[in-house]
Amino acid sequence: MFALALPIIIFSRELLALFNGDPAVIEYGRTRILYITSFQILNLTVDILSGSLRGYGNSLAPALIALLGICVTRVIWVFTVFPLHSDYSTLLACYPISWSITATIMLCYYFWFMRVALKRKSGGSTR
After folding, report:
1. Whole-structure pTM value
2. Which residue has better confidence, 120 or 100?
């Protein structure tokens, strides 16, 4: 992942200039690239854990965790924090924050689910 992200970050101005030559647009795009690619590992963690849980036949809980952790967090952020500091960076900060919250909850749920699933498989108690 880092091997792909690094060239995108390094050449972000040149890549963005392929789509729009306006320096302001390029700076906004570069800011977005930095926020998204720098924290993409958090999003990958959510996706990997969610996919693993779906592979075990547990699809509802990861979907709800993602919905609440990502969507609801971003909506709350936009209506509470963003009005206090209405700049582009504050708006983009909702991405790593929502990914962090969701990854933490998903990781906790994943380990809880695996512990319960392994006990069930071995015939042990689920408590």
Report:
1. 0.85
2. 100
